[in-house]
Amino acid sequence: MRILIIEDDPNLNRQLAEALEGAGYVVDRASDGEEGHFLGDTEPYDAVVLDVGLPKMDGISVLERWRREGRAMPVLMLTARDRWSDKVAGIDAGADDYVAKPFHMEEVLARLRALIRRAAGHASSEILCGPLRLDTRTSRATLNGQVLKLTSHEYRLLSYLMHHQGEIVSRSELTEHMYDQDFDRDSNTIEVFVGRLRRKIGLDLIETVRGLGYRMNGDAGGS
């Protein structure tokens, strides 16, 4: 899962990035509204953390432009605790949730997990796919009750496929959501990670749809 952070406070920007990367997310960062708007308009993100008070273009304006342009990714707004008007304006502009500063990092992580799950149609913090269980709170996957030992790339791949199970996901889409903007992307490496993941979870759970990509198929794995 790939997250965009738009925050002008360098320390908070860094702390958010470290927390999100530690939770298994791929993170891109911007420090002003113009750069943030550009990234959100040109790159695919699973969620955005957006501060209201930004230089060059404020967060409300960034969000309003995205929504007018049809960008529907979940947005978590950061607001000042005493500015209730910012919260109202953010929600009216299309924010999906907000957190007031100062905040606990665990709250931001929990709200982002919820936004990403809901956007993919999952209400519970645990996502099931046949014998597979993904606990989004602990970033842990189990197969028939046994914890899977996954690399960070394998976990990102599994997480994205399970969030979008039943859908055909192309190699390019997986590449865009597994790596940040500066990574030298090569969609051929996705085949390698899919192969490794299949050996750990069973060959039938990830279906290859010829010419289109992959589909997570919970019915194929049994229980």
TrEMBL record:
<dbReference type="InterPro" id="IPR011006">
    <property type="entry name" value="CheY-like_superfamily"/>
</dbReference>
<dbReference type="GO" id="GO:0000976">
    <property type="term" value="F:transcription cis-regulatory region binding"/>
</dbReference>
<dbReference type="Pfam" id="PF00072">
    <property type="entry name" value="Response_reg"/>
</dbReference>
<dbReference type="GO" id="GO:0032993">
    <property type="term" value="C:protein-DNA complex"/>
</dbReference>
<feature type="DNA-binding region" description="OmpR/PhoB-type">
    <location>
        <begin position="124"/>
        <end position="218"/>
    </location>
</feature>
<feature type="domain" description="OmpR/PhoB-type">
    <location>
        <begin position="124"/>
        <end position="218"/>
    </location>
</feature>
<dbReference type="InterPro" id="IPR039420">
    <property type="entry name" value="WalR-like"/>
</dbReference>
<keyword id="KW-0238">DNA-binding</keyword>
<dbReference type="GO" id="GO:0006355">
    <property type="term" value="P:regulation of DNA-templated transcription"/>
</dbReference>
<dbReference type="GO" id="GO:0005829">
    <property type="term" value="C:cytosol"/>
</dbReference>
<feature type="modified residue" description="4-aspartylphosphate">
    <location>
        <position position="51"/>
    </location>
</feature>
<keyword id="KW-0805">Transcription regulation</keyword>
<dbReference type="InterPro" id="IPR036388">
    <property type="entry name" value="WH-like_DNA-bd_sf"/>
</dbReference>
<keyword id="KW-0804">Transcription</keyword>
<dbReference type="GO" id="GO:0000156">
    <property type="term" value="F:phosphorelay response regulator activity"/>
</dbReference>
<keyword id="KW-0902">Two-component regulatory system</keyword>
<dbReference type="InterPro" id="IPR001867">
    <property type="entry name" value="OmpR/PhoB-type_DNA-bd"/>
</dbReference>
<protein>
    <submittedName>
        <fullName>Two-component system, OmpR family, response regulator</fullName>
    </submittedName>
</protein>
<feature type="domain" description="Response regulatory">
    <location>
        <begin position="2"/>
        <end position="116"/>
    </location>
</feature>
<dbReference type="Pfam" id="PF00486">
    <property type="entry name" value="Trans_reg_C"/>
</dbReference>
<dbReference type="InterPro" id="IPR001789">
    <property type="entry name" value="Sig_transdc_resp-reg_receiver"/>
</dbReference>
<keyword id="KW-0597">Phosphoprotein</keyword>
